[in-house]
Specification:
This protein is mainly α. The chain has 13 helices and no strands.
């Protein structure tokens, strides 16, 4: 990743005086460590410590926001993402330190039964891995393409816009992601009626929260762009009104698709693999093609259309698989 990033910024950076090398290295370093630590957090969720993990994530995100603002006022510029990643790591390690004894007990516990990794885990794991790779091209590919086509300023506006929308998505999808251990237990016990009732209620609540949050964003955008409120501060930091609306539509669809994916994956299967790969491929191709011709507006409009099509495809798969799996 470091090699690719170095080549990319060396090739497309419009201002060679910007010192991006060390911020890039530190960001990749702390991100890789966070990637190593994150499975331990998920493991604790699987053990039933959902409330404590949720509290930890709240503290983690609050700390990141606080230190990010401090870094902004301190003029640390490109080092800010690295600082955010570092704070995330520190809070994670402090949280995990409270469970060292538990991890030691689990490690020392002698089990008579063993899980075959290549037989029971890997067939599901590699599909998830490919889906997550597709997720990069669905959520993250816009910014580097815009950086190459329109420059750092336009890429920065897209990056901040995506960051805002990702916060909305992560908050709303948490209603379902925190229910993963419960969904999995109900599936294991074949209590499908209770599973569907819980999922339906949770999905409606999370979708309502997602809708209200996006509606609130639209109202703010109307005041900012139409009436020039806060125009000198905010409107110059995000994409224009129309592309923002296209992205809101796409992210609402992503919430629906993400909720469905959580439900299906709790069955230890990944029927949305082709869906995710197709989504990532179409998003990438449309971003490069329409971005080079129509710019940000072309990228966001094509993304919104693709997200709607892919989401309805995912809904069809959802009902098909649920009917098939729950017959057995």
């Amino acid at each position: 990743i470091n090699i690719f990033s170095y080549y990319f910024f060396s090739s497309f950076s419009e201002n060679s005086s910007i010192s991006w090398f060390y911020p890039l290295i530190t960001l990749c370093f702390f991100t890789s460590i966070n990637l190593f630590v994150s499975p331990f957090i998920s493991f604790l969720e699987g053990l039933g410590y959902i409330d404590r993990v949720a509290k930890f994530r709240t503290i983690q995100q609050t700390s990141i926001i606080l230190f990010t603002w401090l870094a902004l006022f301190s003029g640390l510029s490109l080092f800010i993402p690295s600082i955010a990643s570092f704070i995330s790591l520190i809070v994670s390690l402090i949280f995990l330190s409270k469970f060292i004894r538990l991890f030691n007990q689990i490690h020392k516990y002698k089990q008579n039964e063993k899980v075959g990794y290549f037989k029971e885990i890997f067939p599901f794991q590699w599909k998830i891995a490919l889906s997550w790779i597709g997720g990069y091209f669905i959520f993250k590919f816009f910014t580097p393409v815009i950086f190459a086509i329109e420059g750092a300023a336009a890429a920065g506006r897209m990056g901040l816009t995506l960051a805002i929308l990702n916060v909305v998505l992560s908050v709303s999808i948490a209603w379902n992601s925190t229910k993963i251990p419960i969904y999995s237990e109900l599936i294991a016990n074949k209590n499908y009626d209770k599973l569907d009732n819980l999922f339906n209620i949770t999905f409606l609540k999370s979708t309502f929260v997602n809708f209200l949050a996006h509606l609130f964003l639209i109202i703010i955008l109307l005041f900012v762009f139409e009436y020039s409120f806060f125009g000198l501060v905010f409107s110059e930091r995000v994409v224009e009104f129309t592309p923002f609306i296209f992205l809101i539509i796409a992210f609402f669809m992503n919430h629906v698709l993400g909720s469905i994916a959580i439900y299906l994956r709790c069955h230890k299967k990944e029927p949305l693999l082709l869906n995710s790969i197709t989504y990532g491929l179409l998003s990438s191709l449309s971003t490069v093609y329409f971005g080079s011709i129509y710019g940000v507006e072309g990228i966001t409009l094509s993304y919104a259309i693709i997200s709607i099509i892919i989401t309805f495809w995912g809904i069809i798969i959802f009902f098909q698989k649920k009917k098939l799996w729950h017959l057995n």
